[in-house]
Amino acid sequence: MNIQVIAPSACVDAEPIQLAQQHLQQFAVNTILSPNIFAQHRYLAGTIEQRINDLKQACEDPNIDAIWCGRGGTGAAQLLPYLDHWILNKPIIGYSDSTVLLNYVARLGGQALHAPVFQEIAVKNLNDVMQISSNAQEVLALLNPVLQQQKNHYPVQPLNTHAQSTKTISGKILGGNLATLCSLQGTAWALRLDQPSILLLEDVGEPYYRLERLLVQLLQSIDLNHLQAVVLGDFYHCPQKNVPQSIAEIFAEHLDPLKIPMYLGDWFGHGENNRPFWIGKEAHLQQTNLLI
Known about the structure:
- The structure is a single chain.
- Helices cover 25% and strands 24% of the residues.
- The protein is an alpha/beta fold.
- The protein has two domains: 2-143, Rossmann fold; 153-291, Glucose Oxidase, domain 1 (3-Layer(bba) Sandwich), CATH 3.50.30.
- It has an eight-stranded mixed β-sheet. Strands 2-1-3-4-5-12 form a six-stranded mixed β-sheet, covered by helices on one side.
- Helix 7 packs parallel to helix 8.
């Protein structure tokens, strides 16, 4: 398998990128670093032209099987006006700031895998015997064309009465980083729910009042008739300060009046565990089990 690593967002760190490249060889994975992977333009991984050229080149290279984003941060939204049909040629892997690319690709019917960025996979969520994280190994498994035809199981926990009383929910998987999604609302690339959808949300470092504001903005800017359920991931290092309610309790105040089931799925986000899942795929949610 040939995977090309790109940097569509913030500057990447060379050491963890090269370490991951080295360790993936034991899985028969050949990783190619894009020409501008270590470029720097302010806090970004190169200019818009450099980043879009790397992305397009990887998408159009017939020898590349998948494209893995090196890091999140900021900047991927700057590339959206320059994307064309070539973005659908290969699976795109990433999360956080890459949320904008994943949901764009998914909306057009391409393959978008919400998963750890490349510079994390050899330094995060490891144990004494693994040099590559279990999440990264699951990414490689999901890229197998045979396994892509199968449903994958993810545990969830009902968080409100609407989730507890609903037996089965079906819908298209959308979502990712809440703040990044909200940054696109009001633009031509805003998140759209044009069919029954299940929204998975996570975030990092945002205080509770901002998270509530972001959720309200998102709910006010999408078609709620198509929102079948919300699954909360890991809201990692989000300072609670003196707020007595949890994130789930705050979000429930806005979702309960809309009769939208809410679930906990703390296996994805910026924390130690970030299991990969396909955005854009049809899924089925059954009480404590999400099938994607």
